[in-house]
Amino acid sequence: MTATHAYQPSAVEIARRYRNTRAAMAKLGLDAAIISGSAYTGFEGAVRYLCGFHILHRYAYVVVPMEGDPVAVFPREATWVGDHSQTFIEQRSIPPHCGEWMAEHCKGRGWKRVGVYGLEYVMPVRDYQALAAAGLDIVDFDVAFDHSRAQKSAEELVSVRHSMEVNKAGVLAVIQAYQAGKTEAELMGVAERTFATLGTARCTMDMILTGPNGSILPQMVFARPDRRVQDSDGLLYGLEVTGRGGHWVEFSRLLAPQGVSAETQRLLDAYTEFHELVKTHLKAGASAEEVHQKCSRPFQGKGWRLGHVSGHSIGMTMIEYPRIGEGSDFELPENMVCSMHPHVMTEDRKACLYMQETFRVGKNGGEPLSGIPVRFYRGGETAL
Fold first, then answer.
1. I want to staple 13 with a disulfide (CB 3.0 to 4.6 A). Which of 9, 87, 157, 292 is the partner?
2. Ramachandran region of residue 157, left (φ > 0), alpha (ψ -120 to 50) or beta?
3. From residue 330, how far is each of 21, 204, 223, 339, 358 by CA, in Å?
4. Which domains does the chain have, with CATH numbers?
């Protein structure tokens, strides 16, 4: 297997990914694994990770045996959908029914115990039904596969850092373009134009939180084309993207043209403390639950409610296991990448904060990849 397309991983990196995947398969006693990907935002990355193909529409698979060559499987109706020359593995199949083809492929090779990545969110029901009808012992491979790819290589980190520069450019574009009277969607369009120009393709997941009088309400919503922003608003454009290498990052900062409310300032102060604690405690060898417990202390005992986990692993799939929260005993490896974004709100739900930042797990603590401190902007700034 070799990489033959721009922005594809090297042969060494491809071999590393398959070695780690098969190590996870061996622990579960699998004969093979089926890795699912879908055009559903954020869930195309597992297929891209193992075969290089960027799903444009519909879905695709990679079938990985414990020994021998993997196979990329594409639905026939999508033969001309997407750039198949991106696919860096040699074996490919384009059947009319992917599930039936994969079931026969597994049975024909005598495989009995087959792991499936995508059972929880991704795999189309008809393909699962075909596998189940074949009498295979189907094993949920979601957590094991995500854990196997949690530690990023130096090559992957280059892609992650590029994605962060793209994300920051979109956030800055919104801040620079702010003007009272523009619509929420008009401002989001500025970010999307920046992202598309820099090569994200469709790999963006954008939302907003807004509120009156320098605060934001906790509900995450689509930017509205009929709602015009005001200087008294609090606006938080939550922007998540991948650069051309396919690694997701998350970064956002608060926009409050007339300043923030007193309660929002308290939340900002606590968020600043949270980020400092992440720098200290997001380190190799710590458990995900331990990091959550230590870093969420600034939000405790102040009459606030946590509406979200502290964060999650992030890679070529937008949300990967483990989550950085209660009950997650996964030991963090060096160079794992995590999105950290506690969703903190007042009991009356009239103020909240939800600012995204992507961190690298280091030997001695977390590295915030944006390099931008926790703060709010008034609009029109020329730099972050």
1. 9
2. alpha
3. 17, 28, 36, 16, 19
4. 11-148 (3.40.350.10), 154-377 (3.90.230.10)
Q: Which residue is listed with tokens 């690298």? A: 360
| Strand pairing category for 352-353 and 320-324 | unpaired
Residue 30: HSE in the Cβ half-sphere, 13 Å Cα cutoff: 27
DSSP 85: G
Q: What is the DSSP secondary-structure string of 142-197?
A: HHHHHHHT-BPPHHHHHHHHHHHHHHHHHHHHHHHH--TTSBHHHHHHHHHHHHHH
CB of 75 closer than 8 Å to CB of 346:
no
Question: Per residue in 19-66, pLDDT tens?
Answer: 999 999 999 999 999 999 999 889 999 999 999 999 999 999 999 999
Polymer length in residues for the chain: 384
Strands 337-340, 352-353: pairing is: unpaired
- Cβ neighbours for 31, distance < 8 A, ≥ 6 positions apart: 65, 66, 106, 109, 110, 111, 112, 113, 114
